Amino acid sequence: MGLISTAAVGVAALALLTPGVAAQSAGQCSGVTGRYQPRMGAGYKYSVLATGLRQPRHIAIDSAGNLLVAEGGAQSVRRIVLRDQGDIVCAQSNSQLSGTNTNHGLALSADGKTLFTSNLASVFAHTYDASTGAIGASKQIITGMSNTGTHPTRAITTSRFSPDTILVARGSNGNIDTATTQQSTGRSMIKTFSISKGMQTVHQYSSGGEVLAWGLRNIVGLRENPVDGGIWSVENQMDDLRLNSRDIHNDNPAERLSYHGQLNATTNRYKGLNYGYPSCVPAWDPANVGVSNLVVGSLFKPDGVPNANDCANRMTGRLHFHAHTAPLDIEFNANATQAYIAFHGSWNRNPAQGFRVMRVDFKDGQPVADVSSRTAQIPVMENTGNCPNSCFRPVGLAFDAKGRLYVSSDTSGEIYVIYGAQ
């Protein structure tokens, strides 16, 4: 299917769906039919906003309430003008923002006047007018991030509490990147950079900026808590794990939600901490690891990694998730009592796991659940089809001012809207 029309899109009256879905669907926009019918958690409904997009990845709501979508398949950004129609929101028009360059990353400055994008090698800045969609020439502000192996995406986010700061994550050069035991590689880490300095002289990723956290295999989603300014990341951990020549990869290691402190804090005790990769990985199913005294999240040394005698002294995540579920984004509601996480789903597991949006409850800036919990995730939006081949695979998340949560699905080329997420 091609890109959705740039002409105005109307909306029909709420459609009656099959009995099992009617209670979960909020209705549909005219001419927009989703490929799948998600199963929704208690209190949530959904609608399909757009179809036919080219691998939509990270998304954002601009200061005028429009939806910006990084289309990985088009290496550019699409702007969708939104319009309320009864109980749902629909696309009034959409257009491609010329001159943008991204395969995944997308962020807006604190004042909404600068659009940042990222690709394999670089981060770019563009002046941006949310009311008209006018965009200025591309300005490279960070470069030197190309990998020869895997993990081509560069997650980026900006800070409301430290407006001159942009955070950029760069993943490993392979499943086990032994060189990342040294910070000098500039891989498997999150760095912070000055936006204003980057506009004057391009930052080199490896030698520039400041290390916020390292020993993180592949961070694909970054977000600032909108209430206290705390920085959070979601990480994709190691594949094909073995320990003492025994295959334990189906349920280990855990994916992670990690906390990195507040950028504007006088002293941030989390700044610069090492999270263990590539030498130490977190357990999801401790019983299957075969190492005594492990709990969920405990770090251990698998086969084929650099020597490690200090896993107990490395930082682990604040929460952990099932192996290979591939969390790709995290988004907070307005009062930061809930964090939503998009799990893209597994390829390195049988049967497959993930392919859903889940919620984690927060209080006073931290998850309510204990670090070793296996039940911290609350279902929001799940597949009913055959994954990974015949289902939606969520990537990007963004809230609008009315508390509606937008979700991109790259493999199906769709944008969903979740209602009740506030």
Automatic annotation (TrEMBL):
<dbReference type="Pfam" id="PF22807">
    <property type="entry name" value="TrAA12"/>
</dbReference>
<dbReference type="InterPro" id="IPR054539">
    <property type="entry name" value="Beta-prop_PDH"/>
</dbReference>
<dbReference type="InterPro" id="IPR011042">
    <property type="entry name" value="6-blade_b-propeller_TolB-like"/>
</dbReference>
<feature type="signal peptide">
    <location>
        <begin position="1"/>
        <end position="23"/>
    </location>
</feature>
<keyword id="KW-0732">Signal</keyword>
<dbReference type="InterPro" id="IPR011041">
    <property type="entry name" value="Quinoprot_gluc/sorb_DH_b-prop"/>
</dbReference>
<protein>
    <submittedName>
        <fullName>Soluble quino protein glucose/sorbosone dehydrogenase</fullName>
    </submittedName>
</protein>
<feature type="domain" description="Pyrroloquinoline quinone-dependent pyranose dehydrogenase beta-propeller">
    <location>
        <begin position="39"/>
        <end position="419"/>
    </location>
</feature>
